[in-house]
Amino acid sequence: MHTRVEPLAGGTLLQAVAERADLSTAVRGAAVLFATVATIASAQVSIPLPFTPVPFTLQPMVVLLAGAALGSRLGLTSQLCYLALGLAGLPVFAASPALPQGVARLLGPTGGYLMSYPLAAFVAGYLAERGFDRRYLSSVLAMAAGLILVFACGVSWLAFGVPHAGVSVAIATGLVPFLPADIFKIFVAATVLPAAWRFLR
């Protein structure tokens, strides 16, 4: 007789799917790889802006979704894999005529944003493990917490790691132009996981 398995009371969407389908560790690894590839793909959707070295990309939304879906440890791992590929010199970072690929990208003006991705994915995943991804408003809060971390690291790096920048310039070029679009992306992304939970149930 078939017994219906309920999703985990706590835990992430990936854990609930894995429990139902009896997925192996290899499939969990494949999920991490998929999140890494999705981050790479989202980096290629970039729009350079003339007044800032920071391009507009879809990466923050993908990073936060990956963290919330995979959980804190696997979400963090997916972004560490992304950075490792970039450090190895593979063209995984957003295309830029001025900023090189490889280690130099992490030391450049966008380095703070990139280095924040593992932490942002961890935070979003940590909150998702505690049920924040089950409802729309709490999902928005989980995504917002991760986004705040991305901007805090990115703007701080611009302000103190880039010569002749300063706090006011960093805010004007690294926060203000991106905030409206990224807030909108959060509101859109926050619909995905609650909808997936409803489908799973």
What is this entry, summarized?
With 201 residues, the protein is mainly alpha-helical. Helices cover 68% and strands 2% of the residues.
Report on this model:
With 201 residues, the protein is mainly alpha-helical. The chain has a single domain (13-47, 54-200), classed as Arp2/3 complex 21 kDa subunit ARPC3, CATH 1.10.1760.20. It has helices at residues 13-21, 25-44, 59-70, 72-87, 103-107, 111-129, 136-161, 166-174, 179-189, 192-200, and strands at residues 46-47, 56-57. β1 and β2 form a beta hairpin. The longest helix is centred in the C-terminal third of the chain and has 26 residues, at 136-161. The radius of gyration is 17 Å and the shape is globular.
Q: What is the CATH architecture annotation? A: Orthogonal Bundle
Gap between N and C termini: 19 Å
State the secondary-structure class: mainly alpha
Mean pLDDT: 86
Number of domains: 1
User: What strand line-up does the widest sheet have?
Assistant: 1-2
Q: Count helical runs.
A: 10
Q: Identify the overall geometry.
A: globular
Helix content estimate: 55-70%
Kindly identify the CATH topology.
Arp2/3 complex 21 kDa subunit ARPC3
Order of helices and strands: HHEEHHHHHHHH
CATH class: Mainly Alpha
Number of E strands: 2
Biggest sheet features: 2 strands, antiparallel
